[in-house]
Amino acid sequence: MKNNFNVNLFILFIFSIIIIYFIYFFFYNKNKEQFNNQLAQSLENENENDENENVLNALENDENENDENENDENDENEIDENEKKIVYITSIYGDYEKTCKPFIKQTIPSDFICFTNNKNLIDNGWIIDNTEYHLLNKSNLDNNEYVNSLNNNKHNFNIAKYYKQAFINIPRLKKYDVVVWLDGSIEITNEKTSEWILNNIYKEKIIGWEHEFREGKLKNEVDASIHSEKYISPNWNGQKQPIQDINKQYQYYLNNNYDENIFKNHNSNKKNLGVWVTCFVAFLQKDPDVIKFLNDWYLQTLKYSTQDQIGFTYIANKNFIPYTLPNNIIKGLGHSKTDFYIKHNHYT
Q1: Helices 308-318 and 156-165 meet at what angle, rounded to 10?
Q2: Residue 273 in 3-state DSSP?
Q3: Domain that holds residue 283
Q4: Top-confidence residue, 337 or 68
Q5: Measured between alpha carbons, how far apart are the two ends of the chain, in Å?
Q6: Dihedral sign computed on CA atoms, order 186, 189, 191, 196
Q7: Is residue 101 part of a domain?
Q8: 239 forms bridges with which residues in the sheet?
Q9: Same domain for 142 and 1?
Q10: Which of 64, 82, 100 is the last residue of a domain?
Q11: Which of 57, 82, 107 is the last residue of a domain?
Q12: pLDDT for 77-131, tens place per residue?
């Protein structure tokens, strides 16, 4: 009896162990499956977070890139706004001047460019350009047959007229709206010169200065020029040149209906209107009327004489009358000192 009890107890023990094993196996696999599922979910969430972070990073990078592009555009706009619209030019060929005259810094961005073949020229802050544009970018008006065509008159004084009257052919100047010609003797002394010019040139197109000694009469300018060695000498300042027949030029103008009175009829209050001192002239250079004025003016030099103030008056008579200083705000004498500039002696 006792043996049967022990056998039954042993069987019960074995059966209990088997049941416990099955219970353990069932719950272990279930928990393992849950753990694996949780781990997979966690990894998936982590990957999703990584993807989201990558997306956020990408968006942030795009935003930064957009900000950079916007900053670049702003920088470009700033450059555009500050782009120089006005340039002062002069031409010093040979030793007619020893220096580019000093200038005061302008209140708005402005360039100062000197075209020269003089390697020893003192620049005084000017941009020096030794390129021979008169040969590389010769005016189409020059047919090589006029008295002052560049192949007929190689005098430095005649070459300089190209830069004074035919500068619209120079590639580096095309970016500017306004070109202000200064003779080599002119020193800009007013920091607001560019500002005043830009405020007025788009309406007036050409701005010049009256000749205070000629009373507005071209005949007076002719009479003052016909005895100058600069025009009548075949060998002036150490260089050969054709004689400049100013009387013939003036007679041609009279024969072609030049009228001394047209300027008085235009403005009787300005007694000197009609002859300009061309040491300082501002041009709205891209304007069609100005282009025609410049071409017609340079043609007078090519055909007749290097006395460009005579040709200037004739073209003003034919085309249109430039705005003429002084006025009630801007004062001075064009041949010496004005509110914009000082005129120095030559060879300085």
Answers
A1: 30
A2: coil
A3: 86-343
A4: 337
A5: 146
A6: negative
A7: yes
A8: 236
A9: no
A10: 82
A11: 82
A12: 343 545 899 999 999 999 889 999 999 999 999 999 999 999 999 999 999 999 9
